[in-house]
Design brief:
The structure is a homodimer of 352-residue chains.
Chain A (H helix, E strand, L loop, with lengths): L9 H7 L4 H8 L7 H14 L5 H8 L4 E6 L5 H16 L3 E6 L4 H13 L4 E4 L8 H8 L4 E4 L12 E4 L1 H14 L5 E5 L6 H16 L8 E2 L7 H10 L6 E4 L2 H13 L9 E3 L16 E3 L2 H16 L8 E3 L2 E3 L21
Parallel strand pairs in A: 1-2, 1-3, 3-4, 4-5, 5-11, 6-7, 6-8, 8-9
Antiparallel strand pairs in A: 10-12
Helix pairs in contact in A: 1-2, 1-3, 5-12, 8-9, 10-11
Chain A binds a DNA duplex (16 and 16 nucleotides) through helix 2 and helix 4.
DNA sequence: ATGAAAGCGCTAACAT
DNA sequence: ATGTTAGCGCTTTCAT
């Protein structure tokens, strides 16, 4: 055990095993035909020297880094955090490292983040962008034919060729909205994150509108809430002041749903007795609420695995792999109930 | 715009700008004295060529990667996810990339994860290990004098020299337990994650015991719950069958608290009317519950910033920087209330 | 089956 | 202020 153990290079190993560096490299990579005896002596020498392969040298030479980049809007959102975790597990199982970047939903950050990753020569990227149809970053990636797979984004139109993995947001939103309507609600309102930050939010709003239109109900404008910034409570107070007042809210994410429920309750409305709330995502915390949150469950783990698998194929040179729409499920909790028909007009119970 | 834009190397730039590669390298690094004119021509050439620095080459030569590794038990836990996000923000602001690894609380994975990171020659590591006092990984890092900073871990005894950032878990646990006792509870029970997986859990259990002892109450064994695996509900059913039955639970994490509340409620106990619950961590979701979760708030963001700052100093060669205990705060929600004194014996309300 | 040698893209002495 | 040159640690023809 010398002081600078890991400074041992492939060359040191070669000397100690009295073979050439080429041979050492061969046994290190398992590849090539090397005599069992020499291989063993190399392994022994490596162990004795405390040798640790320096990936940098390998990467420089092979122009492959066995590293993928992951660019996500935030890790504060459990969906993204869980997804990243699943990606990391899949990647490391395949011998890949993962380098991350977050954008705070800001396309400007997408640029800086991607450049950093690209300078590091990641072999490919898994990412969620603000808008998959119109993205400088994606255009760059396309131009440079750098492998990437989108998660959660649903590119459409001219961008439809972009590889992506996620659920059918519009359909899922339509279905959960139908569930709300089936419970007897006639005055629904959607609460959404800022459309500019999320094409998912837009798709979900479309699905909501689909269901509302199909039931021949009146469609109101989604309440756009900048989650981290705005006073959700004030916005909800106003929303509940409308006549007829909404009896149910469909929220574009579970976090939004939780905040909405909290605000509604603090305004004196009982959930689901006075007003129903449904979410979207299926974060596990939602199950632990009482009553449990009614929501759409996205198969996060599967999305991650599929995305990594796709990316791996792309990296390995396969083409035309297409995208994957995975199955969502409805998780019927207890936050959506029948509207209280006896209520003339839900009196404004709370105050600001 | 040729096909292979980014294949342009520093050498191509040098040729186009009719200077030497050394000069290009100099303007790229901002360092050194280069005439404004030549610098400009180099920048122009680089732009025209769509040149993108290849970090691999730089890293190999400089034996620095401007990359840190982050090893965390999981990202499923919001505390870790939020911390990682804050680390990433701090790191990228300082020009560092971050490569991640998760261990699922399994020390065996710590080994594999760290080797991967170390092969990638990360400049330093930020990590949370199962046991900061007894860790093969930490011993290795010490032996190789690889810079690292622990987060959340609280090394003690012989391991006290290990740089760490976090709160005083024992004190914080003691304080929130005192809060519970001050509400009038006499029969408290702690619910903890597996001690083997978390030295924090052990510290918190000690703090709990401190408060219980100080109030001269009877100390019961913490209920160890393997969160992801065990049937929490069954364990709680049993716990509530004890006589005298506990009237309050202190949970070693907010997630555990949420699961506990869910199980208790499904067993027919009202929280906080029949039984009080407090958590630890201060995840933001806890604030959105109704009633809001009473808990200890760890300054996650600050922990991340401090840890990165410390690591950066270590990487830059400074020594003897010590550790940082950051301030926690109690967040008094509504999940801890006075025990119902009229209750003779809390009758078993639910069934399995 | 193994070795010799070239070179991936860059930085850092050392020259000039 | 700028150029020359020697590698950083590894993989990979091309020989043998």
């Amino acid at each position: 055990m010398t002081t600078k153990l890991h400074r041992a290079t492939i060359r040191d190993v070669a000397e100690r095993a009295t073979v050439s560096v080429a041979t050492v490299s061969r046994v290190l990579n398992g590849s090539e035909r090397v005599t069992g005896a020499t291989a063993e002596s190399v392994r022994l020498a490596a162990e004795q020297l405390g040798f640790r392969l320096n990936s940098i040298g390998r990467n420089l030479r092979s122009t492959k880094t066995q590293t993928i980049g992951v660019i996500l809007p935030t890790l504060t959102h459990p969906v993204f955090a869980d997804c990243l975790q699943a990606i990391e597990i899949a990647a490391s199982a395949a011998g890949y490292s993962v380098t991350i970047a977050t954008t705070s939903y800001d396309p400007a950050n997408e640029e800086a983040a991607s450049e950093r990753l690209l300078r590091n020569r990641v072999d490919g990227l898994i990412l969620t962008v603000a808008n998959a149809n119109k993205s400088k970053l994606l255009e760059k990636l396309d131009r440079e034919s750098k492998p990437y797979v989108l998660v959660y984004n649903e590119p459409t139109g001219a961008a439809k060729h972009r590889p992506s993995v996620g659920v059918d947001n519009r359909l899922a939103a339509k279905q959960i909205t139908e569930h709300i309507i089936a419970a007897g609600h006639r005055n629904l309102r959607m609460i959404s994150g800022p459309f500019a930050q999320s094409d998912r939010a837009r798709s979900r709003a479309r699905g909501f509108a689909d269901a509302v239109a199909h039931a021949k109900l009146e469609l109101t404008e989604p309440l756009q809430v900048d989650f981290m910034r705005t006073d959700v409570r004030a916005q909800l107070f106003e929303a509940m002041s409308a006549r007829p007042a909404p009896t149910a809210f469909f929220c574009s994410s579970d976090q939004l749903a939780m905040r909405a429920m909290h605000s509604l309750r603090s305004l004196g409305f009982r959930v689901p007795d006075d007003v129903s709330v449904a979410g979207f995502d299926g974060i596990s915390l939602g199950e632990w609420l009482t009553p449990a949150l009614t929501t759409v469950v996205q198969p996060t783990h599967e999305i991650a695995d599929t995305a990594f698998g796709l990316l791996k194929s792309l990296i390995d040179g396969e083409r035309h792999l297409g995208s994957a729409r995975l199955h969502h499920t409805l998780r019927i909790g207890g936050t959506v109930a029948q509207p209280t028909t006896t209520l003339i007009h839900p009196t404004q119970k709370g105050t600001l």
